[in-house]
Amino acid sequence: xxxxxxxxxxxxxxxxxxxxxxxxxxxxxxxxxxxxGCSTELGAAPNSxxxxxxLGLPGSLPVVxxxxxxxxxxxxxxxxxxxxxxxRFARKNYFYPDMPKNFQTSQYDEPIAFNGYLDVxxxxxxxxxxxxxxxxxxxxxxxSTHVGGAxxxxxxxxxxxxxxxxxxxxxxxxxxxxxxxxxxxxxxxxRAYVAELRELIKALGVSEARMExxxxxxxxxxxxxxxxxxxxxxxSETKNVNSLRSVERAARYEIQRHAAVLSTGGTxxxxxxxxxEEDGSTTxxxxxxxxxxxxxxPEPDLVPVAPPRDWVEELRSGLPELPRLxxxxxxxxWGISDHEMQSxxxxxxxxxxxxxxxxxxxxxxxRKWWMGELARHANESGVExxxxxxxPVQVARVSALVAAGDLNDKLARQVIEGVLAGEGDPDQVxxxxxxxxxxxxxxxxxxxxxxxxxxxxxxxKIRGGNLAAAGALIGAVMKLTRGQADAKRVRxxxxxxxxxxx
Amino acid sequence: MxxxxxxxxxxxxxxxxxxxxxxxVEVTEAHLARIEAVDEKVHAxxxxxxxxxxxxxxxxxxxxxxxxxxxPLAGVPLALKDxxxxxGVPTTVGSKILEGWIPPYDATVTKRLKDxxxxxxxxxxxxxxxxxxxxxxxxxxxxxxxxxLTRIPGGSGGGSAAALASYQAPLAIGTDTGGSIRQPAAVTxxxxxxxxxxxxxxxxxVAFSSSLDQGGPCARTVLDAALLHEVIAGHxxxxxxxxxxxxxPVVEAxxxxxxxxxxxxxIKEFGGEGFxxxxxxxxxxxxxxxxxxxxxxxxxxxxxxxxxxxAYYLIAPSECSSNLARFDAMRYGLRVGDDGSHSAxxxxxxxxxxxxxxxxxxxxxxxxxxxxxxYYDAYYGSAQxxxxxxxxxxxxxxxxxDVIVSPTTPTTAFPIGERVDDPLAMYLADLCTIxxxxxxxxxxxxxxxxxxxxxxxxGLQIIAPALKDDxxxxxxxxxxxAFVTKWGHPLLEEAPQL
Lengths: 502, 498
Ligand SMILES: [Zn+2]
Prior knowledge:
The complex is a heterodimer of chains A (502) and B (498).
Chain A: H1 9-15, E1 16-27, H2 66-78, E2 82-83, E3 90-93, E4 103-106, E5 113-121, E6 127-139, E7 143-147, E8 159-163, E9 170-176, H3 186-204, E10 216-226, E11 236-241, H4 244-263, E12 271-276, E13 281-287, E14 297-298, H5 309-317, H6 323-334, H7 338-346, H8 350-358, H9 363-381, H10 392-403, H11 409-420, H12 426-433, H13 441-454, H14 456-463, H15 470-480, H16 487-497
Helix pairs in contact in A: 1-4, 3-4, 8-9, 8-10, 10-11, 11-12, 13-15, 13-16, 15-16
Chain B: H1 2-7, H2 10-19, H3 24-42, E1 45-48, H4 50-65, E2 77-81, H5 108-115, E3 119-124, H6 158-165, E4 171-175, H7 182-188, E5 191-194, E6 215-219, H8 222-232, H9 250-255, E7 263-267, H10 277-292, E8 296-300, H11 308-323, H12 344-355, H13 358-371, H14 377-400, E9 403-407, H15 423-427, H16 434-439, E10 442-450, E11 457-464, H17 469-487
Parallel strand pairs in B: 2-3, 2-4, 7-8, 7-9
Antiparallel strand pairs in B: 1-3, 4-6, 5-6, 5-10, 9-11, 10-11
Helix pairs in contact in B: 3-4, 11-13, 11-14
Residues 33, 36, 38, 50-51, 53-54, 168 of chain A line the site of zinc ion.
InterPro entries (chain B): Amidase, Amidase_CS, Amidase_dom, AS_sf, GatA
Pfam family, one (chain B): Amidase
Enzyme class (chain B): ligase
């Protein structure tokens, strides 16, 4: 592999102005596929979720999934798009073994949604408006696994395995207009856009949009033009960039690579590129010398989609609060700073905290647990916060036990630890580990007596009026009770037994 | 006895089975024997499903014995065009590329036939992927016309028409993209109906040109066609283009043939150069007869029909180039070159090279070209505009007439081999039938006599507006009755003994 020259990022931006186009594919979470009744469940045995239609058997025909259309309209509305009054599916013709019919049923010049925008907030709070060109419906392809050969690509493979379970799963492709004026923040804008879109999709409940599962995939198109120039440069298309971080890195890498080529008098080749997670680089894929001719034409096997206006309006009025507005509201409700809110978002803790509050915890406690103990645990075990094995309901229960005085902070941490270790619900952990705060006087009294006897010198100081020394005796009691004593009550008992006024 | 059984109409056969005069097994065996005796000469069938047919027949007899109600065509044998999928029974579409493919599912038409206890004898020969007008494009050899085995039986559904005309089955199913039901019916003196587009489900009917393809009934009488029409028609949720309206009352219409007071249109553009004199003569006599039966005959012009053939040969190939892309050797059918030395792409190319015949390749190439960027507007786009104009011409015509009549095809059956090297001459066979497909209307062909110069059958085409399929049967039944009275017997009885 040849070494790719990169220009330092700052130098690249000093001379060039990046223009981006982002194409995001979202797999809808419909129960059945876009054009047949097969299940969309992930993880099934290969080719177990197929039928004549999604296998493209001779004679089979598609039927549109109404929920798929509804989801597409919801996405379009949430992206401030116009919704087509009448539109058709189109066939995109090209040969590939994982595409059963050798055409993809998609939409071409009549997308269901068009002309919208999405406001995205950058880390410093600045809001950047990304214009949306269109959102259209299509179907996913099957999945090829190329075996043998070094690259995992079809060339050089000894054989390939095909799984058509994914073939026909509904996809929405969302395409931005050229994103101009982002300057050196272009990679950040790209990331923030995809992040915001993901939140939006999740809020609409149309897909889980899990990028690591391939439910949301992004193509990053990027070109550079000399600063002050209006005309776009030649673009590269980096395909299937499948995490937020990767989107940012891919944009950044391509800026540096394009700049290196252009600044030495070279020309950018219009091509698709592959992104490499390991080092954040991209390598050349297919060169688009002759632009591929997909021979689009209206799909004759399907009737046009003409969503009635009153239905569209009904969907519009049923849209949930948009994520950015919701975040603003929560920030105000909780009385936290932009910075704190950003940390919550970065940790992926927002929905967990909200769910914990919904389960009865107060906001401060919910934030404290998720952003403290649990974030640390996620970090140490190398998982995303939502994957930590504790539920918001369980966290809320722990926080309720603390509020009721049944647990102190130290015990609560032990309960959390127990839940994370799979020992059961908080109450079960409390029972099994015997973690109740001890506040009943007879049990505590003996421990206090013992502590006084063990620490006669300190007891004497306290009797002499040195109340600050009480802490040491309280500590001794806590030690004797393995931390389960109610510290406040211990202090009262110590002072009482030593005959001093608190 | 056998000779008698095979010459019964479907309606008569069903009545005799229902009354117990005949068993379904007897009827099926008689037809299987007939196939055995004559099909070596005719070659109407690509596959005879002897066991399946007898099993179905036995089930009908068992039902009757148990006192269960029987449908109007229960136990009647049928020849199914090899374009409909049949679970567990080979379906080739007349192509090498699907040789050996056993579909895992039944087409909706197949299913409805089975549900109605129609006995499926086997699958009939056809032009490969329904592309042709002579059945000579079948990868499995041509079918002979029972009137003259050296002549074509029409196409693409030549096998179904020949099976009817040679008494191998009283019922058959065809598909009609540009005339593939009507033109074979015309040249074999049988009855064939192309229902309104969307009237019969296309699910499980291997696609040639999705926006034009339409399955329909074939029979020896108008009433039999109507009975079959009613069995296979009706909304199917598996086909988005299937119309969700009640099936027109075709059987009732076929039982009450009449043209009194009807306005019948004759279109100027369906005539002139290229029309055989004997065909024109029989057609004119038919028009005269309609007048005598009380119809009012109106002359009309549909100027855009001149462009119908050109539009058709852009739209149909365009859609077929995409529909046939799935035959790539990956999942089913023929696979050539899979010897470890070829890439997947090469295997696909080698398979398509070996598996498709010349006419299919010609149309795939034509369609691929017509859809290419830079040509789309000039070809596919313009063809769609012509299509709209043709529909408008029909709409205007149907403002002043109830049905339109024309010769079904400009000539009688031509000799096998005569037009194989002249695709344009071959395409002319569908001159009068194609506009109907482009507009999505309903049409029927029924026999109207023999051309004096060659003694071969001539077909009369009746065209009705979309969803008014019952008009075809009302007019067809009246014309059929008048002709049978005039001839003293059905025309098919004049066909030579095989
Ligand atoms: Zn399926």
